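This section describes the prediction task in plain terms. A model, or a person checking by hand, is given the sequence of a single protein chain and must write out its three-dimensional structure as a string of tokens. No templates, partner chains or ligands are provided. The sample shown here is typical of the held-out split.
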Amino acid sequence: MEILRSSLFSLSLVLLFFFVLATSADVHENFVQCLTSHSQNATSISQVIYTPNNSSYTSVLDFSIRNLRFLTPETPKPVVIITPSHESHIQVAIICARNHGLQIRIRSGGHDMEGLSYVSHVQFFILDLINLRSVSVDVESSTAWVQAGATIGELYYSIAEKSKTLAFPAGICPTVGVGGHISGGGYGMILRKFGLAADNVIDAHIIDVNGGILDRQSMGEDLFWAIRGGAGGSFGVVIAWKIKLAPVPSIVTVFKVSRTLEQNATMLLHRWQYIADKIDNDLVIITNITRVNSSEKGNKTVQVSFVSLFLGRVDELFPLMQKNFPELGLVKEDCREMSWIESTLYIAGFSSGTSLDVLLNRIPDPRISFKAKLDYVKEPISKIGLEGLWKRLNEEEGAAAQILTIPYGGKMSEIPESETPFPHRAGNIYHIAYFVILEEGVEFSNRYVDWTRRLYSYLAPYVSKSPREAYANYRDLDLGQNNDKGNTSYAQASIWGVKYFKNNFKRLVHVKTMVDPSNFFRHEQSIPAASPWGKKRGN
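The expected answer:
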């Protein structure tokens, strides 16, 4: 009798497996049929649809996966990938996905820290915007339209083609997609002068849950507010941004000065905390902290690299450094003058003489696996606190770690917290981001994730509190997540939402409820729509 029960159980599992396969196949076939039958041009849309039966499916899926943690046989795969070449392809994809119960994942550059732009644990399709990446620069008005599938590198390159004295305050990594970067805020090397990327958006085109194409005027100021820092994947598909370009001098100055613990790195970093957010707004000094080999044979030490961009010439920079940070011991030989566009290569770590064409390369080299977290620092970390940080870097997993600090102040402190959903403004000295990074071919085991969690716990006394703030573009599912199925309550979503958006989270939920009440655009940390029951209770 026991054997019979076991056999029946095994048979039921097999039948369930084939039922799921059949259901999945039906969904994807019906979805594809819907796409072709509702498209204005069936031939056109069929050329941008990739199913698992298509020979190019795997290469299209893998091409924009920027975190190899999510490129494994076990990682859930989409039933369909669509790479729209026209906005009408997106419109019909939204309508058909709603009709067939498929979740949408929107991928711009593929750098989502938790893979949420291309991974889901429910049936889903990927809308990959790689073919929508045109950039149109208007030098006379100092503006540009950039499609959401463009990378930061492609945007920078296009600006430099037209002007040597215009820039944009976006990120350091050139392969990051503009769509997601701006949606979450987007910081870079000129944030102290011009603010975030999202602070410099003056219009946008978005396709909403009904397939309508809206600009700033037709979407209204509430939705326009929400998409400039409220993070991607919650309100619709942003297909293009109109951005305000920033004036920069024809010559800027950069430097990189590295010091180890034996060269007073602890003292220098401690001192940096007191001046980094207060110096001239034309000057930003970030730090990059890693574990390196010591000059003493066989020993390890910690190295702090001070990396700077100054919007001016070295003769102007040097007196500022002598006045504000003489302890660093900067000499003119440490400094290099170049154009702003050349500085983007320098800051990104490319070697001298690298062609600007590298900005057009969408594939990072090397490809990596990583886990990241980010905190905000409002009071300088003590020397004892920094020394405790060095101890964590000296643990085995610390060999793969990188810590990056970006100072705020300047324009960042002038913009009110509620101006955009990004609330981390006045009162923040800097943010501290910490990564564990492994190159392709090295197994990324859970012990590396655990190391970032231990460091997160260690830093608790030294960073923001109530809430412990976080940055939406540094997505971190450890902070909490929505339910896979059904609605997520305001209270549950607030656990992570208030960390990212502080008091702005409530307004984001309000906007979401207005524009997408059925919660079609959703993922593990998307803004939830308030339920009718929740609204009655004042949530």
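For orientation: Confidence is low (pLDDT under 50) at residues 1-22, 533-539.
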